[in-house]
Specification:
With 177 residues, this protein is α+β, with helices and mostly antiparallel strands. 31% of the residues lie in helices and 27% in strands.
């Protein structure tokens, strides 16, 4: 049933008008939301000279470096996300609605390596891999004034060997409301 909803979803509309990116977003009930950002702000976001990393330790004691995607999560959708929240009954529905929106706004694309994109870039491009879509998902959740005390964690794992990790090859979002 969820796949039928996504297939019949009203697609977002993007217009660049006088230096402003204007996007009309739709939720699963086809409610409209308007989000804008100046092109100059978008350009500033997509120019990133840093390659932040952090360390992770396996149960075996081996320590590896992985991309630290936390600096890419902001609150870029604060001018629209509270409207989404206000149309729903509870926290769970809000999380599911944001997941639905991310799923309809982007196409999952496989990527080799860790080249994270800011949420705005993933949204405008309409595609991203696991870290890109998780960054977009987290940014949209974090953008609501109703989620200020929520704990969001980026969870790195081995999707091929989840119970006996050999490498880090996937990232997901853990939400504690």
């Amino acid at each position: 049933e969820q796949n039928k909803k996504i297939e019949s979803a009203v697609k977002p509309q993007v217009v660049i008008n006088k230096g402003i990116v204007e996007m009309t977003l739709f939720d699963s009930k086809n409610n409209k939301y308007f989000w804008t950002i100046p092109v100059s702000t978008y350009d500033a976001f997509v120019k990133w000279d840093k390659d932040p990393t952090t360390t992770m330790e396996f149960d075996s004691g081996e320590i590896i470096r992985v991309g630290d995607f936390r600096p890419f999560v902001g609150t870029n959708f604060s001018n629209v996300i509270d409207d989404v929240y206000d149309n729903l009954e509870n926290h769970d529905n809000f999380v599911l609605e944001i997941l639905y929106m991310v799923s309809t706004l982007t196409i999952y694309s496989l990527d080799i390596g860790e080249d994270p994109r800011f949420a705005i870039e993933t949204l405008v491009r309409g595609e991203g891999d696991c870290e890109d879509t998780v960054i977009l998902f987290a940014d949209m959740i974090r953008s609501s004034s109703h989620t200020k005390d929520w704990k969001l964690q980026l969870v790195y794992f081995d999707s091929d060997n989840p119970t006996n990790p050999q490498q880090i090859n996937h990232v997901a979002l853990l939400i504690d409301d």
